[in-house]
Write a structure and sequence with these properties.
The chain is an alpha/beta fold and 408 residues long. It is built from eight helices and 28 strands. The protein has four domains: 166 residues, Molybdenum Cofactor Biosythetic Enzyme, Chain A (3-Layer(aba) Sandwich), CATH 3.40.980.10; 47 residues, Alpha-Beta Complex (Molybdopterin biosynthesis moea protein, domain 2); 83 residues, Beta Complex (Molybdopterin biosynthesis moeA protein, domain 3), CATH 2.170.190.11; 73 residues, Beta-clip (Beta Barrel). 20% of the residues lie in helices and 31% in strands. A hairpin with a 6-residue loop joins strand 8 and strand 9. Helix 1 packs across helix 7. It is elongated. The two termini are 37 Å apart.
Length: 408
């Protein structure tokens, strides 16, 4: 086993990326099922969109030059031509939004800029329109050869619309990433409030972690239940999870000490599995006890049993690892500028993640720090809607200082 030392977050992720050996294969799915999945390859348009000149309004397709002198005082009469795909410059064809322009037409006049006298098949144009007025040109939206979805892009509704526009009905995406979650702790129970009367503790951390993973449709979490504080049983359940999943997360039993049961259990797996410890503890608060390793090339994140510490580690280590590994585009946290309402201290040598209550104040955003200590205080998550990262090289931020916060 490698002797532990606290590594910074970026160093942990960089070292982990270098040694992982997992493979996330592509699958082909229906376009209708692709929302929030990850594109496996670049998708390039084989056609122009629109594929032909088409009307952008309801009206009449005309020759623009025929209306050069048109005005309410000098209406230009044109013969209405129905059901034809070709007109001459003394004719006008009724057209609806999205319809293809007939041959000979190069503009569209809106109905409200015309009138008919009710007795003749004539329309009077009261406004001059230039060539291509109210016309969506060939390739105006998407050009043949344009990349409309990049490899690694999180597929959003507008991507689906664009892919449908170029005629796709199926798409290749990365299969869902299987993440196993193991809860460790003899004192933990899964159930209702009667557990408290029995002297037990309700397992809430795994619920928070699994629910957070479920927010990402390209992740398939699996909870393996609660295992007691027994290194043999912990090792056995981790072994099973490693065999079934791409990534394994444990909660509880962490920390660089003799009581770090999860870490100690790894020694039982060394006989027939390759163990590579990336970092035994991370230079962050909360979440300092987080340990990262690989087993047979698969990432193992050993998170704190305290809910807030585990949640922060998931946000700044687990999800960023997945994003870097697959080069995912589109899941970066949203950051906004805000003004601190009071001073907040950092901890030199550690990245500190403070829970923040962000709210509108005048024309800007204010950031009210909640507790930065207390890794098990759920109320700070309930009351906050953002996180402030205080860099490990900073002593903190003063009241009134402008900072960037990550929205939850």
């Amino acid at each position: 086993m490698t002797k532990f030392r606290y590594l910074g977050i970026n160093e942990c992720l960089e070292n982990l990326i270098k040694v992982v050996e997992i493979v996330i294969e592509p699958i082909t799915i229906n376009l209708s099922e692709s929302l929030d999945m990850i594109a496996y390859n670049n998708i390039v348009s084989p056609i122009d969109i629109p594929p032909y000149d088409r009307s952008a309004v309801d009206g009449y397709a005309i020759c623009g030059e025929a209306t050069t002198s048109a005005s309410p005082n000098n209406p230009i009469p044109l013969v209405i031509k129905h059901g034809s795909n070709k007109i001459s410059c003394n004719e006008a064809a009724p057209i609806s939004t999205g319809d293809r322009l007939p041959l000979g037409a190069d503009a569209v006049i809106m109905f409200e800029d015309t009138y008919t006298d009710g007795t003749k098949n004539i329309v009077y144009v009261m406004r001059s329109v230039p060539k291509y007025a109210n016309v969506s040109r060939v390739g105006e939206d998407i050009r043949r050869g344009d990349t409309i979805v990049e490899k690694g892009r999180l597929i959003r509704p507008w991507h689906i619309a664009a892919m449908a526009a170029i005629g796709l009905s199926k798409i290749r995406v990365y299969r869902k990433i299987r993440v196993g979650v193991v809860t460790i702790g003899s004192e933990l129970r899964d159930g209702g409030i009667e557990i408290y009367s029995e002297g037990g503790i309700i397992d809430i951390t795994s619920k928070l972690i699994v629910a957070s993973l479920q927010e990402y449709r390209f992740i398939e979490p699996k909870w393996y239940g609660i295992v007691e504080d027994d290194e043999d049983k912990i090792a056995s359940l981790i072994r099973r999870a490693v065999s079934e999943d791409d990534i394994v997360i444990t909660t509880g039993g962490t920390g660089p000490s003799n009581r770090d049961l999860t870490f100690n259990a790894l020694s039982l797996l060394e006989k027939d599995m390759r163990i590579n410890v990336i970092s035994r503890g991370v230079a962050m608060r909360p979440g300092r006890p987080t340990t990262i390793a690989t087993i047979n090339g698969k990432p193992l994140f050993m998170l704190s049993g305290f809910p807030v510490a585990a949640y922060i580690a998931l946000r700044v280590l687990v999800i960023p690892f997945i994003a870097r590994f697959l080069d995912i585009k589109g899941i970066e946290p949203i950051e906004v500028p805000a003004t601190l309402t009071k001073r907040i201290a950092g901890s030199v040598g550690y990245d500190v993640f403070a829970r923040i209550k962000a709210y509108r104040c005048g024309d800007s955003m204010c950031a009210e720090p909640m507790a930065i200590h207390g890794s098990g205080v759920l109320k700070t998550l309930l009351s906050s809607n953002a996180i402030l990262r205080i860099d490990r090289n900073l002593e903190g931020f003063d009241r009134g200082e402008k900072v960037w916060i990550q929205l939850l």
